[in-house]
C-alpha cells in the first residue's frame, strides 16, 4: 500500500511531461528535463521516509543538502585539493604531453611503431595497480594524484590526436605542397585545425576520467583532505550524508568541467559540420 | 569454484530458512589469525556442538563492519570499541556482548633516526601514518591527550592516511606509522629493518589503550530471546575456539589458511600473528571488564576540541550474554 504515493508522484510527473512535450520550445525542452530530475529526487526523499531506510544505507536528499550546507568549508578544501590540484593539473599536463607526442608520432613513422603500443600498454594498466606505486614515487600529496591522472588521460587524447592529424584530404595536402608550404606552416594552418574536432573528443572523454583518477588515487594514501579521502573515511565514521555531499560536488564539478570543454570546442571548431544547429 | 558453489548453495539454504540458530559474523578485517578463534570454533565443530550455525564473512579495506550490521548483512560484528561507541553516538545502537581481547595490539612504530624518544615532546612537527575507516579514533584520542593538533604545522602533527602496507615508513614519507603488534610490525621487520632501526610506542604503555576486537550486536537483536540464546551459545563456543587457538598456534594458523580464499597469507606469518594475538587474549574469558570499558570511555571523552564521543554512552555493553555463557 505504501508504494501508492510513490507511484502517484511518478505517474504525475510523467503525465506533466507528456503534456509539456506538445509545445516544442526551448523553455519546455529544458523544463521536461528539470521535471524528470525533480521527480527522481522527490521519489528518493519519499522512499527514504516511507520505508524508514536507515541513514547508513541511504540518506535522504534533504539530509544530504543539510550536510552540504553545514560542511561547505570542508567540501571547498576537498574540491581545491582533488579537482583543481589533482585532476586539473594532471589533465593539462597529460593533454599537452599527448598532443606533442601525437605530433612527433605523425612526423616520424619510426616513433609511431614504437610509441603507440607503449601508450596502449600504459593505458591498459589498472589504476589500483599504478596508484600505490605513484604514491611511492611522488609522495602522498596531490602530485601523485596528478601523476595518476596524467597516466589515465594521456592515451585517449593521443589516439584521438593521431587520428586527427591524419584527417586531411590528399587534395588539401597537395594544395599546401603546391604553394611550397614548409612542414610547420602546413601543420599550423591546415592539419592542426583539421585535427581539432578529434582532439576535443579526446579532451571531453578524459574530463571524467581525470576526476575518477584523482578521486580513486586518494584511496591509496593521502593527506587528510581531498574528496577521495573524505569519501573513504566518512563511510568508516558512518557519516553518509557527507559522503553523498562529496558525490554531489564530484557530479557538479564533472558536469561543469565537461561543459567548459564543450564550450571551448564550439568556439574553436565553429567551422565543423557537427557544430551546426 | 567449489567453494563458491558451496557457499552459494549455503546462501540459498539460508535464504530459505533463516532460523534463530543461524548467525552471521562480520569480521573487522581480512581472514587472518586475528580471528583464529572463530575459524577454529567452526573447524573443530564447537559451534556445531552448541547447535549454532555460524557464517563467517571476512572484512577488508573498504568494509565498515558497523555499516554491514546496520544494513542487516550480519548479526554480530567484530569491532573496536572506539568505532562502535562513535557509531552508537551517531544513532546506530551497537552493544558489546563479549570482549575476547583483553589488551590492545596497537602501536606507533617510528624510525629511530628521526630522534623521537618521547611522544609528549617529540611528535610535534612530524608526519605520522594513521589508518582511517573508524580506526583513527584511538590515535586522535591519544593526540588529544598529548595536546597536539592533527592539522599539521610546526606545533601539531601532520597526519597521513596510511594505506594497508608499511611503505610510508620504508619510504621515509612518515616518521611513524600505525602498526599492530601481530601484523604490520612483523611486515616492517620482514622488509629488512631491524628492531634497532625502530622505536615503538604501544598504546597500552602510553595509557591510551582502547578495547579492540569485541563482539557487537544491534540493540534490537537482544530483544529477541531466541537470538539471545543463540548468541550465548555462539560466545561460549567462540571462547572455546580462542582457548584452543592460543594453545595450538600452529594448527590454528593452518585452519585460518584453509579458510583464506585469497591465498595471500603464509603459514609462517599467520603462526607469528597467532602467538602475538595469544598475548592479547591473556586475562580475558570473554567477559567485558568494566574497568577496561571505563578506561576506554574516559580516553575517548578526553578530547580537547574534537573528542571522539561527546557524552558517556548509556547501555553500550551488556553482561547478560557472557554471564549466561560462562556460569
TrEMBL record, chain A:
Major place of residence: membrane
Membrane-related topology note: Multi-pass membrane protein
ABC transmembrane type-1 domain sequence ranges: 94-269
GO terms, biological process: transmembrane transport
Cellular compartments annotated: Cell membrane
Pfam families: BPD_transp_1
GO cellular component: plasma membrane
Spans through the membrane: 6-23, 30-52, 83-105, 117-140, 146-165, 198-222, 242-264
Hydrolase among keywords: no
Keyword field: Cell membrane, Membrane, Transmembrane, Transmembrane helix, Transport
Protein name: ABC transporter permease
Organism from which the protein derives: Paracoccus aestuarii
From TrEMBL, chain B:
Keyword set includes Transferase: yes
Top-rank taxon, per record: Bacteria
Reaction(s) this enzyme catalyzes, per UniProt: N(6)-(pyridoxal phosphate)-L-lysyl-[4-amino-5-hydroxymethyl-2-methylpyrimidine phosphate synthase] + L-histidyl-[4-amino-5-hydroxymethyl-2-methylpyrimidine phosphate synthase] + 2 Fe(3+) + 4 H2O = L-lysyl-[4-amino-5-hydroxymethyl-2-methylpyrimidine phosphate synthase] + (2S)-2-amino-5-hydroxy-4-oxopentanoyl-[4-amino-5-hydroxymethyl-2-methylpyrimidine phosphate synthase] + 4-amino-2-methyl-5-(phosphooxymethyl)pyrimidine + 3-oxopropanoate + 2 Fe(2+) + 2 H(+)
A GO term for molecular function: transferase activity
Residue ranges occupied by any SsuA/THI5-like domain in the UniProt entry: 33-252
Signal peptide start-end: 1-20
Pathway noted in the entry: Cofactor biosynthesis; thiamine diphosphate biosynthesis
One Pfam assignment: NMT1
Gene3D superfamilies recorded: Periplasmic binding protein-like II
Family annotation (SUPFAM superfamilies): Periplasmic binding protein-like II
BP term (GO), one: thiamine biosynthetic process
InterPro entries: NMT1/THI5 (IPR027939), SsuA/THI5 (IPR015168)
Entry keywords, A to Z: Iron, Metal-binding, Pyridoxal phosphate, Signal, Thiamine biosynthesis, Transferase
Keyword Transferase: yes
Protein family: Belongs to the NMT1/THI5 family.
Quaternary state and interactors: Homodimer.
PANTHER family: 4-AMINO-5-HYDROXYMETHYL-2-METHYLPYRIMIDINE PHOSPHATE SYNTHASE THI11-RELATED (PTHR31528)
Function summary: Responsible for the formation of the pyrimidine heterocycle in the thiamine biosynthesis pathway. Catalyzes the formation of hydroxymethylpyrimidine phosphate (HMP-P) from histidine and pyridoxal phosphate (PLP). The protein uses PLP and the active site histidine to form HMP-P, generating an inactive enzyme. The enzyme can only undergo a single turnover, which suggests it is a suicide enzyme.
Name under which the protein is recorded: Thiamine pyrimidine synthase
Organism of origin: Paracoccus aestuarii
Lineage, top ranks: Bacteria, Pseudomonadati, Pseudomonadota, Alphaproteobacteria, Rhodobacterales
Amino acid at each position: 500500500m505504501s508504494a501508492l504515493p510513490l507511484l502517484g508522484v511518478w505517474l504525475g510527473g510523467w503525465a506533466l511531461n507528456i503534456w509539456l512535450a506538445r509545445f516544442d520550445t526551448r523553455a519546455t525542452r529544458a523544463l521536461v528535463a528539470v521535471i524528470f530530475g525533480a521527480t527522481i529526487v522527490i521519489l528518493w526523499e519519499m522512499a527514504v521516509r516511507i520505508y524508514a531506510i536507515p541513514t547508513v544505507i541511504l540518506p535522504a536528499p534533504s539530509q544530504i543538502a543539510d550536510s552540504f550546507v553545514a560542511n561547505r568549508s570542508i567540501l571547498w578544501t576537498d574540491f581545491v585539493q582533488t579537482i583543481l590540484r589533482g585532476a586539473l593539473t594532471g589533465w593539462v599536463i597529460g593533454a599537452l604531453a599527448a598532443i606533442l607526442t601525437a605530433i612527433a608520432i605523425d612526423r616520424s613513422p619510426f616513433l609511431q611503431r614504437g610509441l603507440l603500443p607503449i601508450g596502449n600498454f600504459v593505458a591498459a594498466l589498472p589504476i589500483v595497480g599504478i596508484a600505490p606505486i605513484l604514491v611511492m614515487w611522488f609522495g602522498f600529496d596531490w602530485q601523485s594524484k596528478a601523476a595518476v591522472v596524467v597516466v589515465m588521460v594521456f592515451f585517449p587524447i593521443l589516439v584521438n590526436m593521431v587520428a586527427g592529424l591524419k584527417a586531411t584530404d590528399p587534395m588539401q595536402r597537395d594544395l599546401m605542397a603546391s604553394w611550397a608550404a614548409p612542414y610547420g606552416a602546413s601543420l599550423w594552418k591546415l592539419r592542426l585545425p583539421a585535427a581539432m574536432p578529434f582532439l576535443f573528443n579526446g579532451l571531453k572523454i578524459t574530463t571524467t576520467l581525470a576526476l575518477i583518477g584523482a578521486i580513486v588515487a586518494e584511496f591509496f594514501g593521502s593527506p587528510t583532505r581531498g574528496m577521495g579521502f573524505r569519501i573513504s573515511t566518512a563511510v568508516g565514521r558512518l557519516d553518509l550524508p557527507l559522503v553523498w555531499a562529496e558525490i554531489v560536488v564530484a557530479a557538479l564539478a564533472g558536469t561543469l568541467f565537461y561543459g567548459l570543454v564543450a564550450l571551448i570546442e564550439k568556439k574553436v571548431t565553429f567551422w565543423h559540420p557537427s557544430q551546426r544547429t | 569454484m567449489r567453494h563458491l558453489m558451496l557457499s552459494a548453495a549455503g546462501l540459498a539454504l539460508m535464504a530459505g530458512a533463516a532460523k534463530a540458530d543461524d548467525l552471521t559474523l562480520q569480521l573487522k578485517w581480512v581472514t587472518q589469525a586475528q580471528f583464529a578463534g572463530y575459524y577454529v570454533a567452526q573447524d573443530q565443530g564447537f559451534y556445531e556442538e552448541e547447535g549454532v550455525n555460524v557464517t563467517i564473512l571476512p572484512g577488508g579495506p573498504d568494509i565498515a563492519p558497523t555499516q554491514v550490521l546496520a544494513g542487516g548483512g550480519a548479526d554480530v560484528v567484530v569491532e573496536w570499541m572506539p568505532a562502535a561507541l562513535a557509531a552508537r553516538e551517531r544513532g546506530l545502537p551497537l552493544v558489546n556482548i563479549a570482549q575476547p581481547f583483553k589488551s590492545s595490539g596497537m602501536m606507533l612504530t617510528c624510525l629511530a633516526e628521526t630522534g623521537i624518544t618521547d611522544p609528549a615532546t617529540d611528535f610535534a612537527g612530524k608526519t605520522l601514518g594513521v589508518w582511517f575507516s573508524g580506526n583513527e579514533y584511538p590515535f586522535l584520542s591519544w593526540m588529544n591527550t598529548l595536546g597536539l593538533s592533527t592539522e599539521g604545522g610546526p606545533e601539531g602533527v601532520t597526519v597521513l592516511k596510511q594505506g594497508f602496507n608499511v611503505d610510508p615508513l620504508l619510504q621515509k614519507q612518515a616518521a611513524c606509522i600505525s602498526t599492530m603488534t601481530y601484523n604490520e610490525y612483523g611486515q616492517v621487520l620482514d622488509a629488512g629493518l631491524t628492531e634497532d632501526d625502530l622505536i615503538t610506542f604501544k598504546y597500552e604503555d602510553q595509557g591510551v589503550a582502547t578495547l579492540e576486537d569485541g563482539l557487537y550486536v544491534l540493540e534490537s537483536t537482544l530483544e529477541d530471546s531466541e537470538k539471545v540464546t543463540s548468541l550465548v551459545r555462539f560466545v561460549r563456543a567462540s571462547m572455546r575456539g580462542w582457548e584452543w587457538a592460543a594453545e595450538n598456534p600452529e594448527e590454528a594458523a593452518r585452519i585460518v589458511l584453509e579458510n583464506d580464499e585469497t591465498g595471500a597469507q603464509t603459514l609462517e606469518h599467520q603462526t607469528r600473528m597467532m602467538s602475538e594475538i595469544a598475548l592479547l587474549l591473556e586475562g580475558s574469558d570473554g567477559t567485558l571488564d568494566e574497568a577496561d570499558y571505563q578506561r576506554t570511555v574516559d580516553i575517548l571523552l578526553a578530547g580537547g576540541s574534537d573528542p571522539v564521543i561527546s557524552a558517556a554512552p548509556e547501555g553500550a555493553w551488556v553482561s547478560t550474554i557472557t554471564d549466561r555463557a560462562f556460569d
